[in-house]
Amino acid sequence: MKPTSFLATLVLFFSLITGSAAFASEQPTVNINTADVATLASLSGVGESKAQAIIDYREANGPFASIEALADVKGIGARTVEKNADRLAVK
Q1: Is residue 77 helix, strand or coil?
Q2: What percent of the chain has pLDDT over 70?
Q3: What's the pTM value of the predicted model, to 2 decimals?
Q4: Which GO CC terms are listed, alphabetically (predicted)?
């Protein structure tokens, strides 16, 4: 194989790998005002009990006005909101 062909093959290979990795890491946005327990539990640092606490809080206090308001839920801290900020939405 010619050096230029080999180099082109390597560039293509690494492009495919990095493109696939970026695609695999994308996760869907979670609307904290409508999400169910399973969807909320998919967030980093949120299990089923915290997910249920989010729903209970939402039902008692109405929809969240901002993603930062999620930290008002007992057991959900600002760090959890920060870790998940790119996946959270209020609609």
Answers
A1: coil
A2: 74
A3: 0.71
A4: type II protein secretion system complex
Which tokens hold the place of 63? 């929809």
In one-letter notation, the amino acid at residue 26 is E
CA 51, CA 72: separation in Å to the nearest integer?
A: 13
Q: What distance, in Å, lies between the first and last C-alpha atoms of the chain? A: 55
- The answer to whether 87 and 81 have CB atoms below 8 angstroms apart is no
> Amino acid identity, residue 27?
Q
CATH number at 53 reads 1.10.150.280
Number of structural domains, the chain? 1
Q: Which residues contact 75 (CB under 8 A, 6 or more apart)?
A: 49, 50, 53
Q: pLDDT tens digits for 19-46?
A: 544 443 578 999 999 999 999 999 999 9
Supply φ then ψ for residue 22, to 5 degrees.
-65, -40
Residues of the domain holding 41: 30-89
Q: Which of 60, 36, 58 is nearest to 48 (CA)?
A: 36
